[in-house]
Please model this.
Amino acid sequence: MVRLRSILLLTLVYLALTANLRPLNILVGVLLAVGITAVLPNPGKKLQWRRLPGIIVAFIRYIFTLLYDLLVSGIQVARIVLSPKLSIRPGIIAIPSGCQDEMAVALSAHAITLTPGQLVVEIDDDGVMYTHMLNVPDAEQNILAAQKMRQELLREIL
Model:
């Protein structure tokens, strides 16, 4: 029943975004919704309304942390680009995700990849993210501290 509601809601969102009610477009919307709900895990546990304020606060903190990381990394990369004589030492480091949930690992890898100068190139079965960085010596300690904060916030959210 939950999946059927999700399919219906996703189909309606798709139709609203495309503003096209032709039968073929409706069929595409339904197929996309079925595909999305098939990929997503089954929502087995119900939302505890008492936890909702904490989840919202953690989500807002996560968004602001991500925005701050984007800003700082963007400035650092711009400085590197505009002053090519800066000595950088690119490399790949292993960052343990520290998360058991696949969704938390994926969100954490996404947050790292979004920040300029960093790119997750692989995630192994243990959740270790191998990340390419423009300047490994400067960023290694900062990225580990940021990962720990992201891990705590994602644990609260999920």
About this structure: Helices lie at 2-18, 23-39, 52-82, 102-114, 136-157.
